[in-house]
Specification:
Elements lengths: L1 E3 H4 L9 H10 L3 E7 L7 E11 L7 E6 L4 E6 L9 E5 L14 E3 L2 E3 L2 E2 L2 H4 L21 H4 L5 E6 L10 H12 L12 E2 L7 H4 L1 E4 L7 E8 L8 H9 L7 H13 L3 E5 L7 E6 L5 E3 L5 E3 L5 E4 L4 E4 L3 E2 L12 E7 L2 H11 L4 H6 L8 H16 L2 E3 L3 E4 L8 E4 H8 L5 H10 L3 E6 L6 E5 L10 H12 L16 H23 L3 E2 L5 E2 L3 H4 L24 E2 L4 H12 L6 E11 L8 E11 L1 E3 L8 E2 L2 H14 L5 E4 L9 E11 L2 E9 L1 H6 L6 E7 H7 L15 E10 L4 H10 L5 E10 L8 E10 L8 H18 L10
Parallel strand pairs: 11-22, 12-15, 27-30
Antiparallel strand pairs: 1-10, 2-10, 3-4, 3-6, 4-5, 6-9, 7-8, 13-21, 13-22, 13-23, 14-21, 15-18, 16-17, 18-19, 19-20, 24-26, 25-26, 28-29, 30-31, 31-37, 32-33, 34-35, 35-36, 36-37, 38-40, 39-40
Helix pairs in contact: 7-8, 8-11
Amino acid sequence: MKVSLSWLKNYVSVEGNAASLADSLTMAGLEVEAVYDRYDYLNKVVAGRLLEIVPHPDTDRLKICLVNVGDKNIQVVCGDLNIYVDMICPVALPGTVFPDGSILKKSLIRGKESNGMLCSASELGTGIDKNSVMILNQGIKPGEKLIKALNLSDMVLDISLTPNRPDCLSMIGVAREVAAIYNNKIILPDVKITTQNYEDEKHLPDLASVIIESPELCPRYAARLVKDIIVKPSPFWLQDKIISAGLRPVNNIVDITNFVMMETGQPLHAFDFDSLAQNKIIVKNAKDGEKFTTLDNKEHTLSSSVLMICDGEKPVAMAGVMGGMDSEIKDFTTSVLIESAYFNPASIRKTAKTYGFNTDASHRFERGVDPEGTVTALNRAASLMAEISGGTIVKGLIDNHTKKIKNSPITLGVKETNRLLGTDFTIDKIEFFLKSVEFKVKHKGHGEGVEKLIVTPPSFRVDVTRPVDLVEEVARLSGYDNIPVTFPKISSETGQDAIHAAKIIDFRYKLKGIMTGFGFSEAINYSFIHCLSCDRMKLCTTDPARNIVNIINPITEDQSVLRTSLIPGLLETMHKNISRQSTDLKLFETGNIFFSKGHESLPEEKEMLAGLWTGLKDRSSWHTKERKCDFFDIKGVVEGLLDSLNIKNTFFTKIPDNLCDYIRPGFSAAIFANNIAIGRVGEVHPEVILNYNLAQTTYIFEMDLNLVFSAIPEKTAYIPLPKFPAISRDITIIVDKDMESSDILLSVKNFKEDLVEKLYLFDMFEGKSIPTGKKSISFRITYRSSIETLKDDYTNQVHKIITDRLIKKFNAALPAQKV
């Protein structure tokens, strides 16, 4: 919602500058994303004095002007024959960006250099005259910027509104919030209806009729008739208001409907009355398969769920979405029937979603407009049309009101409000806040512990239905920045649960700190992913991750199901970064994944951690060669993470090829802690990389955070620093090629030899000296005693026992032996 400050001031007094207002609105829950001066584009337009004018040698329609722009004289070719010497006019210098988006450059016009442009008011967006160069006051000095010379400044606040605040999709709605912030009064426009009878004193209900056949989808439909209008361009003030809101002027009739929509939040539609068959309006559902062409000249095949506005013979508009070609306002239109209605938000949302519309009207209707503001907006539009188009308003109006929509009273407890907010507001203060935005408030109880209010929301606040909604109103109207930081009270009965919850919170923070310490950046993706993600990830048909939860009303087609893995989101993030030339990425994300448990049950949720590494590990420098990351780099990250969490009893094992799905067979491993599988790590399958339009080798890991948290020891044991030296021995054995080294390492640990302090794999070899189907694996074992210095003979004896046990268990051989 773009809010022009000059327009806003028509309804409320604004204190301070635009920046302070933006801060106040943001702290009141209306986030201001940007503040800018909409005349900034005139920054390179200056006042110029015409010093000399000569005819262009090649054409009678152009003149060559010598123009003083302050510090220099420039040559400009101009097509206005009414300019004169000593005239002061706006001169756009090269680099000027005009309202239509075009950029002025130095140019040759019929062989003559032109270093600027003499501008009309229309070209500059400061008026509607486009036939002649704009004449400035003689007192303006050449070279002075036009913004300063004409005092052109209009700050615009770009407000990002949440879907529950449709009341602020209007200037009056925002003005109401500003009035509450500054404790001012809102000034509503004065609407005067001057009517005239036609055709033997007949009123509008005698000239036209409105029939509502679908009252559940259209509870209210109002109309007025304006005759003898002249369709023409709007006056400058109206065009200027429309442009400031980001809309495009069309003609005076259409511009008035848009102006009133932006002013009041009520979308309107203007029909050419003479083109309505039988002078009827019928609101009803479409027929299945019925064809309809909208104003954008696109034909649509309708279903019976679509609400239509019809005349006596045919459809003329998709209700609340877009009008049709047959009834649009034309240059020769003389009579206009103005529609102002309240439509069922769900119906409009479904129609707009089904047919791919996102019009200004549907945007408001699908969120909910003020059901009591229908006639007010109608009268405002009719009054403006009579004033601007020269028409007259036919006496009487049609207001078919099939169902009254009223907000129910809500009981609000003062004690509960303060408990939820951590505040100590009095009942009078809460009443003051709510009344400032036009809520009706009555006292139900008074006195300590029984203070309650009966609050009735105004009709334009369709989002307020529960006590917690009122609590939110109190919070934002007090200013979120004014609410003190407090801690919730924890009863002794729930203390253990609270302690457990606090530990989990600390665990999450520690986890993120470790990952950022490894150089990873945190990604935060939507919980919604594309419905084809399971196919893109090559998941087999029996994979539990295919138990997806479909979103009934998805934001977009790309976000139509709940995620069953964090990996698709990270791959999409990778794609976005690579498209912006950021190819070396280390990302991680924590969040819930969801598995369907059937339509009657809530989905099962798991909190997961996932990481992604792609691109270079080391960049080329004077001491380092360029090297890409590999499987062992990301495996090392997982090992470092688990070690930092003090999870010691961990190992990695091969994942069977038929269970690899989205990770590449042979380049993957399952992660175990305390003999429980907690996750997996590996290279993303090349086919998955292609499915996501990527071209880089990528490595990922993912772990179940609940299992990781459970594996963290509750107590940390202290081990004194060793007093006695260690002795290392190497062992090389030849085993089957498919034998996992982790099995051998785990077996040595399970031997429970007290002298073994550390062991690790340091070499593996396959080649000519090794029999076919075999491989050579070398380990290093560190021995240490806590009570004495080890002797070589004793260490060798222990080492031989371990070696013999490994040879026997894995049917292995020593390198010197025949296999």
